[in-house]
Amino acid sequence: MSDVLLEVAGLKTGYGDLTVVRDVSLTVRAGEITVLLGRNGAGKTTTLRAITGLNKVSGGTVDYLGETLTDPSHKRVAKGISYVQEGKRVFRELTIEQNLLLGGFSRRMSKRALAASVDEIYQLFPILGTKRALIAASMSGGQQQMLAIGQALMARPKLLILDEPSQGLAPVIVKEVMERVSELKSTGLGVLLVEQAVQDSVAIADQVSVIEMGRTTLHGAAAEINMDDLQRAYFGGTA
Ligand code: ATP
After folding, report:
1. Is the CB of 43 under 6 A from ligand 1?
2. What spacing in Å lies between the alpha carbon of 41 and ligand 1's midpoint?
3. 60 near 231, Cβ under 8 Å?
4. How confident is the model at residue 172, as a pLDDT?
5. Which tens digits make up the pLDDT trace of 110-119?
6. What pLDDT is recorded for position 41?
7. Exposure winner among 8, 39, 49, 207, fewest CB in 10 A?
């Protein structure tokens, strides 16, 4: 079994005095995808914000590479945690290449290292290479989502956190984005993916975790998850 990158145990977090997440646990391993599912308002984004240091952890632990994280958000990026927030928009009036170069900004890389990173992104997402000189606004929603992911990859993360990359995309494009995300596993990257597209995301997942009202109610290996249990947890027993 591959190395554990992220281990969240009994997480409690929220906004100021408001506790939204009461007991969330999940694991992400290198070269694997963990999908975090749950209805609107269940606490998925809030969980991601605690993992990335944007929200305060008030109980439980967030361990990354065996160390409990307490440092601020920007230091977590430097440690290899990249986060593509929900509805993340690229810089529409900049070219694809300029968008990618901005993604590498946080790493203070040499020009040569930056160029090498950009080339790697073009290998992963050939469409970005083909359109490198065009402005981002000229691309489709799915391509812009891939650019947003490419931008996050420019920081050379070990753990990539994606909040609903399929949002607002047509079903056929959702499948394509999921395929591309799935391909990232071969680079050894661990991915924590929050999704509403249940079937498509479970199809590429190694681990699945479901949150209901701030608590993890179902988790396990994707191959062993019973879809009926998943439906019940996800739809609160109405499926
Ligand atoms: P969605 O799919 O709608 O994004 P989610 O599972 O990601 O759902 P969260 O965004 O984590 O849910 O929200 C969980 C709860 O926290 C909701 O009740 C929401 O109203 C509340 N919440 C979110 N952001 C804030 C905030 N900035 N201040 C106070 N409460 C918030």
Report:
1. yes
2. 5
3. no
4. 86
5. 888 889 999 9
6. 93
7. 39
In the chain, CATH 3.40.50.300 sits at 1-80+158-239
- CA–centroid distance, 163 to ligand 1, in Å, is 13
How far is the centre of ligand 1, averaged over its atoms, from the C-alpha of 42 (Å)? 7
Q: Yes or no: is domain 1-80+158-239 CATH 3.40.50.300? A: yes
Nearest residue (CA) to ligand 1, atom 15: 41
In the chain, the amino acid numbered 51 is I
- Cβ partners under 8 Å of residue 222, min gap 6: 35, 202, 205, 206, 207, 208
The CA–CA distances, whole Å, from 171 to 38, 95, 104 equal 19, 26, 31
The angle that helices 141-153 and 96-103 make with each other, rounded to 10 degrees, is: 30
Please tell me if the CB atom of residue 15 comes closer than 6 angstroms to any atom of ligand 1: yes
Nearest 10 degrees: CA dihedral of 111, 116, 121, 125? 120
Assess: ipTM above 0.90. yes
Average pLDDT for 167-178: 88
Quote the CA–CA distance of 65 and 77 in Å, as a whole number: 14
Q: How confident is the model at residue 2 (pLDDT cuts 50, 70, 90)?
A: low
Q: Which atom of ligand 1 is nearest to the CA of 49?
A: 11
Give the number of other CB atoms < 10 A from CB of residue 2.
Answer: 12
Distances (CA, A) of 149 to 2, 49, 226, 228, 239: 23, 17, 30, 32, 33
Q: Whose CA is nearest to atom 17 of ligand 1?
A: 41
**Whole-number Å distance between alpha carbons of 37 and 18:** 22
